[in-house]
UniProtKB/TrEMBL annotation:
<dbReference type="Pfam" id="PF01738">
    <property type="entry name" value="DLH"/>
</dbReference>
<keyword id="KW-0378">Hydrolase</keyword>
<dbReference type="InterPro" id="IPR002925">
    <property type="entry name" value="Dienelactn_hydro"/>
</dbReference>
<feature type="domain" description="Dienelactone hydrolase">
    <location>
        <begin position="8"/>
        <end position="210"/>
    </location>
</feature>
<dbReference type="GO" id="GO:0016787">
    <property type="term" value="F:hydrolase activity"/>
</dbReference>
<dbReference type="InterPro" id="IPR029058">
    <property type="entry name" value="AB_hydrolase_fold"/>
</dbReference>
<protein>
    <submittedName>
        <fullName>Dienelactone hydrolase family protein</fullName>
    </submittedName>
</protein>
<dbReference type="InterPro" id="IPR051049">
    <property type="entry name" value="Dienelactone_hydrolase-like"/>
</dbReference>
Length: 217
């Protein structure tokens, strides 16, 4: 993990940030934009590398979408465990307020949703252009409050996957909101020039402030 600490003393919540299918480095600048914004708002952010070295090697050899989806499906449970282990380490820190959230992008959104469904320590879940893994959806009995952001021109993860996640969250009694960005494609918020990228960052920060900080203020 890479930690982006909020300034000041005292206990504070944390948010685990989960990268997309291409790992951390390719989109690090965008992930750090969210991490820095969360830290500036008083929440510690942690960029989590849930891929193992073996995952990196295996994914580097995959050449088709079908192979990639099959590999990810087989690995989801292990990735859920890795993220929960990261949360355990964060919650054990003396500065932790005891409240943690998950922020996932694309594949990381699927990992975040599946982890939050299994681990009730997570108090908030934000997913950008993601969904719930198919092999986990039927087992979901709870989810924390959810914010899902999605472009309606997304060709990688169709908007319907985000809509299905929101519907599932509401079905198990979780507050769930979705913001749809007209004409925006997959990863629209990675752009430094698109004003909707700033909008998405602001919405995510406000969501976690409300769900993780407001309860203790």
């Amino acid at each position: 993990m890479t930690r982006y600490a909020a300034a000041g003393a005292g206990k504070r919540p944390g948010v685990l940030i989960l990268h997309g299918a291409r790992g951390v480095e390719l989109r690090r600048r965008a992930y750090e934009r969210y991490a820095d914004a969360l830290a500036s708002a008083g929440t510690d952010a942690y960029l989590v590398r849930y891929y193992s070295p073996a995952d990196d090697r295996a994914l580097a050899t995959i050449t088709t979408r079908e192979q990639r989806v099959a590999y990810q499906t087989e690995r989801f449970d292990r990735w859920f465990e890795r993220v929960s282990s990261a949360a355990t380490a964060i919650l054990a820190q003396p500065e932790s307020s005891g409240r943690v959230g998950l922020l996932g992008f694309s594949l990381g959104g699927y990992v975040a949703a599946g982890t939050a469904a299994r681990d009730n320590r997570f108090a908030a879940l934000a997913v950008l252009y993601g969904g719930m893994p198919d092999n986990a959806a039927s087992r979901v009995r709870r989810l924390p409050p959810l914010l899902e952001l999605h472009g309606d021109a997304d060709q990688n993860v169709p908007l319907a996957r985000g809509e299905a996640l929101v519907k599932l969250a509401r079905a198990v009694g979780a507050p769930a909101d979705q913001v749809i960005y007209p004409g925006r494609a997959h990863g629209f918020d990675f752009s430094d020039d698109d004003p909707m990228a700033a909008d998405a960052t602001d919405r995510v920060v406000r969501f976690f402030r409300t769900r993780l900080q407001a309860a203790r203020e």
